[in-house]
Design brief:
Layout lengths: L1 H27 L3 H21 E4 L3 E7 L2 E6 L2 E4 L5 E8 L3 E11 L5 E12 L2 H6 L4 H18 L3 H6 L1 H16 L4 E12 L2 H41 L3 H19 L8 H6 L4 H29 L1
């Protein structure tokens, strides 16, 4: 449109300048009336030419009506119309257009109110239908997309809506495209941007997820204990007919415990007798020997550190 306006002004001024120049030549020849008629005629021609000139951009198509009836599509580039007889009714943009739409407080299939924001990508493939079949194709496609979104939300449960957005996008695209096809509009894609649920429901879902994680943790712990018990059972079968191995295992347990803590309290019980760990005196001797071994190791380390320095 900016190109058309500039070109019209240039054409008007050019034709008018030629007319004025011709009038000046007539004045010199003493034809005053003829000069005035030339100026008036040039002005009318310039005005008609400026009104007939139009320029459509590469992405634009113009719908031309002649005496109220569809005459044809024009563009891109320069084209002319007959003033008064022809009229440019619409300028149609054939590029891909993004339109945002939403559905507020819409109930899902499981009666959960949600607010959904989405984006529709579409383009005009038949400018004639877009101009003649619907009064406002931009507003019509927005309303068609919004009603289709509400229909799809009412048929979908909340869990599927939060997880399976690709499926909902594809279903929306099919529904909207069927509604807008008679208008010469093609739906390229539909994308759901956000699904907003009530705050109370968000807290409930968070508590549910936390409880589910705790349940899974308890199940994993129980399975671990079952595996440990199975290993203990296998170890018990290897010790049942081998008292010496059981005795060595008990001594190793005492050694590891004293090695880590240096002190260990053993309460006499049937477990001690079963592992044949000996009397309390023997255990004390083992503890004393282990303590002496630890002291010797500490002294050796200290002397090594002094020699190094």
């Amino acid at each position: 449109m900016q190109y058309s306006s500039a070109f019209r002004v240039l054409a008007f001024l050019g034709v008018l300048a030629v007319g004025i120049l011709a009038a000046l030549i007539s004045v010199r020849a003493s034809y005053v009336i003829a000069s005035a008629l030339i100026v008036i005629f040039a002005f009318l021609i310039a005005l008609a030419l400026a009104a007939s000139i139009n320029i459509a951009a590469q992405w634009e198509r113009s719908v031309v009506l002649r005496l109220g009836k569809f005459h044809g599509l024009r563009g891109p580039g320069l084209f002319f119309i007959i003033p008064i007889v022809d009229a440019v009714a619409y300028w149609i943009d054939i590029r891909v257009i993004a339109t945002a739409f939403n559905a507020e407080k819409t109930l899902t299939k499981d009666t959960v109110p949600v607010d959904v924001d989405a984006v529709l990508f579409w383009k005009v493939v038949d400018p004639k239908k877009a101009a003649l079949e619907v009064a406002d194709y931009r507003g019509a496609i927005t309303w068609a997309a919004q009603t289709a979104l509400r229909d799809v939300i009412g048929k979908t449960v909340l869990a599927d809506m939060l997880v399976g957005r690709e499926k909902i996008d594809a279903e929306l695209q099919v529904i909207i495209d069927e509604r807008t096809e008679p208008w010469g509009i093609n739906v390229c894609s539909v994308e759901i941007r956000d699904v907003i649920i009530p705050i109370a429901l968000q807290d409930a879902m968070s508590m549910q997820a936390q409880a589910e994680r705790e349940r899974q943790a308890r199940v994993i712990l129980g399975e671990s204990e079952a595996q440990i018990a199975e290993k203990f059972l296998q170890a018990a079968k290897s010790y049942v007919n081998n008292p010496m191995a059981l005795h060595l295992r008990g001594m190793n347990m005492l050694y590891e415990g004293l090695k880590e803590k240096a002190t260990l309290v053993i309460v006499p019980s049937t477990a001690v007798d079963t592992m044949q760990l000996g009397s309390v005196t023997g255990i004390a001797a083992l503890s004393k020997g282990l303590a002496a071994e630890l002291e010797n190791e500490a002294a050796a380390q200290a002397s090594h550190a002094e020699n190094t320095t």
